[in-house]
Predict the 3D structure of the following.
Amino acid sequence: MVATGAVATLAEADGYAAVLLSAAGEEGLRKTERTRLKLLAAIAAALNAGTPRGALKVADVTRAAGLAHGTFYRYFDDLPAATEALVESFAGHVRDRLAGARQGETGSRERVRGTTLAYARLFRENAPLMRCLIGLDGAESAFARSYRELNRAWYGRMAAAIARRRARQAGGAVADPQALLPAAYALGGMIDEFLTQVYLRRDPALAHLAADEEGIADLLTDLWWRGVYGTVAEG
């Protein structure tokens, strides 16, 4: 990727752009879907290379994807529509990556740490897309709706896991997970805000943690576990 933020080629794509390119290369995929994925990958690569969302150009996107300029408009009305589709797809990717972080039993400290580590890595590898997803530009859009839907589903699962684990510890009935949703939202919000400070706002006080996702996961897991169970140790 070139230093200006424009993308001349997708050969060096990383983050979610690489995920999309890998999907585009799968055998048996229809040509139309392959082309659509290449266009989305080119937009993701441009954003990750530093191109502001408002500075994206169709000509740059199609050039990076190796496609004719007019091909873009067979798939999307304009760049805002294409970027919206990209962010919605990325939200699904985040959900799948978090659901796939399945080390340890459900609700265990190991599972919490594994999920937090996966989320920190997603933030680091896809900071511009995370900026779109969490809506730091203040725009109420499909981005914000995708983020709310992602949070609603994830925090619901978190609340249910807390309820089951507390019931096992106490030897009693499982509490209504809805009663634990506020705690799940509060703890999840803590994690989002901390990662935003590290990777999006780049607070100098936290710069030493930017390359240490393992350390970030340890810190946030300790805080999460203490917030839910009153201790940093599993037991």
